[in-house]
Design goal:
about 325 residues; alpha/beta; 8-stranded mixed beta sheet; 6-stranded parallel beta sheet; about 25% strand; globular
Length: about 325
């Protein structure tokens, strides 16, 4: 996989760090805004990237790559992904996939028409903890509840309180806790239980209307889901799936936990899986590269259907915000 990278933020730094562990992926081009040219030059030189662009159309037309990685502001995902698909490039787009369900469906239809790979990068289904939870779910009996909490006091929150609005707290940039931390929780529970019958979102809102924290309540038939996330406060993060014979717990956020354990009603505990919880993107990137190399586009489109379902629920929740 030859990768053309768009953006120069924190997530792009992580991408460059992690593809060093995957010899099959090589970043060959970087595109940044004109005002970020110097930062882009430093980033490209530090990571052995030979091509630097500040014009996206030129990047797509002349860049030596087959796949575009989009790691920019949430509200720009749709337009940049669509341009890349129209240019015949495969796409890896950071979460949230898009800001509306209609945008997500449009991208999915375009990818299918052109037989291109289109991935939403959200880590959860490609790591060992989620796989272990899914495998051992029948052992806890009839599932009654699932709870996820991802509450992490933002380093930008005090600046926000002082009137300095960064993208993380800007509605115009798709900020807020729902589209960031709670989205991981949503991917997790929908991956396990499918489409919810009911969706209700309760938010604490800041002075500009952004949801600084919130609780998402979901009903999956007999299963009740509670997903909480906060940028204005913090607490231990966790995931719990509760059944009539026991429960499964994830220590840490469901997207970056350290271990998954099965605890039976008689208190017997079985360690199911462990992870380093270092925020690495390597698991998902390895899968993306492997599936593209093997031509397994049906796997990609199966994951894309999951992303479309999540976008539908996300939009329903956002309208209640």
């Amino acid at each position: 996989m030859k990768l053309g990278v768009v953006g120069n933020g924190l997530i792009v730094g992580w991408l460059f760090r992690d593809i060093k562990e995957i010899p099959e992926i090589r970043a060959t081009a970087l595109c940044v805004r004109e005002k970020s040219r110097e930062k882009g030059r430093e980033l490209a030189e530090a990571n052995g990237v030979s091509e630097l662009y500040t014009d996206y159309e030129e990047f797509l037309a002349k860049g030596d790559f087959d796949t575009v990685y989009i790691g920019i502001a949430n509200t720009m995902h749709y337009s940049y992904a669509k341009q890349a698909l129209l240019a015949g490039k495969h796409v890896i787009c950071e979460k949230p996939f898009t800001m509306t369900a209609a945008e997500a469906r449009d991208l999915a239809e375009l990818a299918r028409e052109r037989k291109l790979f289109l991935w939403e990068a959200f880590k959860i289904p490609y790591g060992p903890l989620y796989s272990a939870v899914k495998e051992h779910l029948p052992e806890i009996g009839e599932v009654r509840m699932v709870q996820c909490n991802y509450s992490q006091f933002s380093s930008r929150y005090e600046r926000y309180q002082a009137g300095i609005i960064t993208p993380a707290f800007d509605p115009e940039c798709g900020g807020g806790s729902l589209y960031d931390l709670n989205l991981y929780n949503l991917h997790f529970v929908i991956g396990l239980f499918g489409k919810p019958d009911q969706v209700q979102y309760f938010a604490n809102k800041g002075y500009n209307g952004i949801d600084t924290s919130g609780a998402l309540i979901l009903r999956f038939g007999p299963v009740l889901g509670v997903c909480t996330a906060a940028k204005d406060s913090g607490s231990p993060c966790y995931g719990f799936v509760q059944g009539t014979k026991g429960h499964i717990r994830i220590q840490g956020p469901v997207s970056a936990g350290t271990c998954a354990e099965l605890v039976y009603n008689d208190k017997r505990t079985v360690r199911l899986a462990e992870d380093s919880a270092d925020g690495s993107l390597t698991d998902e990137l390895r899968i993306f590269e492997q599936k593209q190399r093997e031509g397994d586009i049906q796997f990609c489109y199966q994951m894309l259907e999951h992303s479309l379902l999540v976008e539908d629920v996300l939009e329903t929740a956002a309208l209640q915000r």
